[in-house]
Amino acid sequence: MKKEGYVFDEHITVDGGHGRIETRRSVTTSDIGWLYDKENWPGLKSLGMIESTREVNGETSYETRYYISSLDGSAQLFGDSVRKHWGIENSVHWVLDIAFRENESRIRKVFGPENFSAIRHIALNLLKENKNFKGSMNSKRLNAAMNKQYLQDVVFG
User: Fold this and answer.
1) Are 11 and 22 within 8 A, CB to CB?
2) What single string gives the DSSP state of each residue in 111-132?
3) Distance between CA atoms of 119 and 61, rounded to whole angstroms?
4) What is the CATH number of domain 1-75?
5) What is the pLDDT along the chain (157 residues), one digit of tens a residue?
6) Residues 26, 75 contacting (CB under 8 angstroms)
7) What is the CA radius of gyration of the chain?
8) Strand pairing report for 46-56 and 20-29
9) How many whole angstroms separate alpha carbon 15 and alpha carbon 116?
10) Considering the entire predicted model, what is its pTM?
11) Where do the structural domains in the chain lie, given as residue ranges?
């Protein structure tokens, strides 16, 4: 597709359920010859934009996000990739909030929030990797706190 001298690809998806309708418009271009300092991003192949319109109970919200990408200019592939990425991101944050109560943290000084976030991510990854104990993330954390041998298995493999 070509508009105002630029070549771009466009893909639109519409999803609904649970009382909401979400329309996502993905637009990409591989026409990046004009981009200043593009050599500072090795592998850069395209620019992308996602416009989201969300209707819930008669109220509509809009959001536009911009990306640089190493993908070729397919808007459908780009949109699917962004959606999968945020699905993974959201599931990790959900686990960190539910199992580690990250959103309730009162750590506020200097580098404390960043340091404890890194520690929580490490703990989450170690607990996920350990297959010696089956159970929820909460039960794995409790087991590691109460059972020294299990804690050693989690930390040292």
Assistant:
1) no
2) THHHHHHHHHHHHHHHHHH--S
3) 35
4) 2.20.130
5) 656 666 889 999 999 887 889 999 999 999 998 899 989 999 999 999 999 999 998 899 999 999 999 988 799 999 999 988 777 776 777 888 888 888 888 888 899 888 988 888 899 889 989 888 888 888 898 899 999 999 999 999 8
6) yes
7) 21
8) antiparallel
9) 37
10) 0.59
11) 1-75
DSSP, residue by residue, the chain: -EETTEE-EEEEEEEEETTEEEEEEEEEE---TT-TTGGGSTT--EEEEEEEEEEETTEEEEEEEEEEESS-S-HHHHHHHHHHHHHHHHHHHHHHHHHH-GGG----STTHHHHHHHHHHHHHHHHHH--SS-S-HHHHHHHHHH-HHHHHHHHH-
Residue written as token pair 């620019």: 47
Beta carbons of 61 and 16 less than 8 angstroms apart: no
Q: Which two tokens stand for residue 10?
A: 């466009």
Helix (H, G, I), strand (E, B) or coil at 84: helix
Q: At 76, list the tokens.
A: 């459908």
